[in-house]
Amino acid sequence: GHLIWVEHGRKAAVLISFFEQLSTATRDGIKAVSMVMGQPYQSAVRKMLPNADIVFDRFHVMQNYCLLIKKERAKAFRNGSHEDKKMLKGTLFLLLKNAHKLDERQSDRLGDLLESNKTLCIVYMLKEQLQAIWDEPCYKSMVKALEAWCDLAKSTRILSLCNYADALLDRKVGVCNYAKYKLTNARVEAGNVSIGLLRRRARGIRDIEYFKLKIRQTSVPDTHSTFYPNIKLM
Fold this sequence. Notes:
This protein is mainly alpha-helical and 234 residues long. It has 14 helices and two strands.
C-alpha cells in the first residue's frame, strides 16, 4: 500500500514512463491494473502490459452514475412547479446516499420525493440495483447481471440512462474484471486526499519537484523516532 512513484500529468506518456522504469520481469508479472476510465491510462496499460487485465474502479463507475442523478434532479428542478421545487430542495444527499444509511426521517422524505417524481424514482431504484452488481461471485455472473441492468436501463427510454448503459456496455470487460481480482482504487484515492490536503496547506505550489518530494515524504509512515532512533513508533 505504499506510494512507489509520483509524476505530474494525466497523459498516456506519463504512465508509460513509469512502466519503462520497471524490469521486463516485473512488467510481465503484473496481472491486473485498477484505474479510472480515462482513455490515456487504458492506452498506456495496453501498450506496456498487453497481458494484464484492466479493472475499472468501482467508485468511479458509481461516481459517474451519481453525476447522472445530479443532472436529472437539476432538470426536474428547472422544469418543475413551485411545489415541485419545494419538494426537491435539499434532497440531493438523499438521492446519493445509500438507502441503509438513511435514518427514518430521511427515508420518509426520500419516499415522498420518489413518489412525486417518476424519473427520479426510476433513476434511484436503478442506482441501488447497479451497486448490487459488484456482489456477484464470478466474472460470468457479473457480466450477466451488468447486461441485464443495461437492458433494464434502456427500457426506461430515459436518454441519460440509455447513454450511461451504452457506455457501461462498452467497458463491460473492465468493469466485470472486478469479480476476478476484487481490485479497487481505494488506496490511491486515499493518497489523493492526502495530496489535496498538502496542496491546500501549502497555499500554492511553485516548485513541482519539491511538491513531489513532500508527497513521497507524507506517504511513508514513520516507524522510528528521528531523535530517538532506537525507539520504534506504534
